[in-house]
Amino acid sequence: MRKEYDFTQSQKNPYASRLKRQITIRLDEDSITYFKEISEEVGIPYQSLINLYLRDCAAQHRKLDLKWE
């Protein structure tokens, strides 16, 4: 390895805006268990599976049909 590197000619990552952002979200135990079970079946980490599901909901413009009584 070099002692110093020259980054003056470097460029910003053009995909930086598409990178994931870490957040904190509270989910109930049943939901987590559900996605963990599916993740074991399909071989995808459960957090990635939750992200894929939420992304699909957003892409399809799905809205929750919920009525409070």
Question: What are the main properties of this structure?
Answer:
69 residues; mainly alpha; 2 helices; 41% helix; elongated
Could you provide a short overview of the structure?
The chain contains two helices and no strands. The protein is mainly α and 69 residues long. The chain has a domain of 34 residues.
How is the biggest beta sheet arranged? none
What's the shape? elongated
Q: State the distance separating the first and last CA atoms.
A: 66 Å
Average per-residue pLDDT, rounded, comes to 91
Please bin the fraction of helical residues: 40-55%
Binned strand content:
under 5%
Structural class: mainly alpha
- Compute the number of helices: 2
Q: Determine Rg (CA atoms, Å).
A: 19 Å
Instruction: Give the number of DSSP strands.
Output: 0
**Low-pLDDT residue spans:** none
Element pattern in H and E: HH
What does this structure look like?
With 69 residues, this protein is an all-alpha fold. The protein has a domain at 26-59. It contains two helices and no strands. It has helices at 29-42, 46-59. It is elongated. The N and C termini lie far apart (66 Å). 1% of the residues are buried. The mean pLDDT is 91.
